[in-house]
Amino acid sequence: MRLCFTSLAYPELNLAEVLERAARWGFDGVELRVADDGIHLRPETPIPSEAKALLERYRVPVPVLSGYLRASSLLTDKGGLAEKLGITLMRMAVDIGAIGVRIYGGQMSHKPREAARRIGEAIEGLKKRSGVGGVKMLLETHDDLAIIDNLRHLVEEYPLAEILYDPANIIYAGGSHDQAFKLIGERIAHVHIKDFRPEGGQRIFTPPGAGVVPIEKIIQDLRSSGYEGYVSIEWERYWHRDLPSGDLMIPKYRDYLRAII
C-alpha cells in the first residue's frame, strides 16, 4: 500500500506549496482537488504548463483527481455540462498520469435499485462517448452511496463499479466497515482515511485513533484482500476552516498509518 493525502486539507495553499509538502514529508503521492475555484487545479485541458512544470519539479505522483461530477447529472444533462466536465477530468487524468477520477453517485432515495442501475449506465456511457481509455471512474461512498443498502444495490446492478472507499462516511451514515467491506472489498480502487467522533448530531474530526473509525482494522482488511493501491488522508479543512492546519494533522496521520502499514 502507498500513502498520499488530498489537497482538500490545504485551501490556503497553492499547488506548489502542496506538492512541496508531499515531497518533503516523504509521501508516495498527492490527491489533487479539481474545482472551478482553481485553488490547486481547475478542470481544463490541456493542463496549464505551469502546473505540469511543478509536477515534474517535485516528482510527486497524482493517483486520483478529486472532481465534483455526479453520475446523476450525466443522466439529466446528457451531452451537456456534466458530460463535458467528466470528459475533461478523464483527459486530465491521462495527461497527469492519474489512475482515476473521483465521482459521486448522486441521489438514490427514490427507487434506489433503479438509481444504481442508471448510475452504472451513465458512467459506462460516459466512458464510451469520451474516447478516453484506461481511466477509472471511482464512485465514492459518499452521501446516498454511504448507505449500506444502496451500496448493495450498486454492486448488484453495476458489477463493473470501481469504488473510492471512505469508511468514515459509511460509519457516519449508520453502517460499519465490516458490512461495507464484505460488499465492496474486491471493488476498492482508492481509499480515504479520516477519523471522527459523533457529537450532537455532527461529526467532529479528530486525530487518528481518537475517534470511532477502526483504522487499524481497515488497513488489516485491505492488506488481507491484496489491496496495493493508495490510502489517502482526507483532512477536510476546505469545508471546515476551524479545523487544525494540515501541517499539524497530515504528519500525525502519516506517522499513524505508516506504523500500521
CATH class: Alpha Beta
SS element count, helices: 10
Radius of gyration, whole Å: 17 Å
CATH architecture tag: Alpha-Beta Barrel
**Helicity, in percent?**
40-55%
Give the N-to-C terminal Cα separation.
7 Å
Helix/strand-derived class? alpha/beta
Largest sheet entry: 8 strands, parallel, barrel
What's the CATH topology label?
TIM Barrel
Strand composition percent: 15-25%
Total of domains: 1
Order of strands across the main sheet: 1-2-3-4-5-6-7-10
Mean pLDDT level: 96
Tally the beta strands: 10
Oligomer: single chain
Shape: globular
Encode the helix/strand succession as letters. Answer: EHEHEHHEHEHEHHEEEHEH
Tell me the CATH superfamily. Divalent-metal-dependent TIM barrel enzymes
What does this protein look like?
The chain has 261 residues and is an alpha/beta fold. It has a single domain (2-260), classed as TIM Barrel (Alpha-Beta Barrel). It contains 10 helices and 10 strands. Helix 5 links the parallel strand 4 and strand 5. Helix 1 (15-24) packs parallel to helix 2. The radius of gyration is 17 Å and the shape is globular. It starts with a strand and ends with a helix. The mean pLDDT is 96.
Please write out the topology.
Elements: E1 2-6, H1 15-24, E2 29-33, H2 49-58, E3 64-70, H3 71-76, H4 81-96, E4 100-104, H5 112-130, E5 136-140, H6 148-157, E6 162-165, H7 167-172, H8 177-184, E7 188-193, E8 195-199, E9 202-206, H9 215-224, E10 230-233, H10 246-260
Parallel strand pairs: 1-2, 1-10, 2-3, 3-4, 4-5, 5-6, 6-7, 7-10
Antiparallel strand pairs: 8-9
Helix pairs in contact: 1-2, 5-6, 6-8
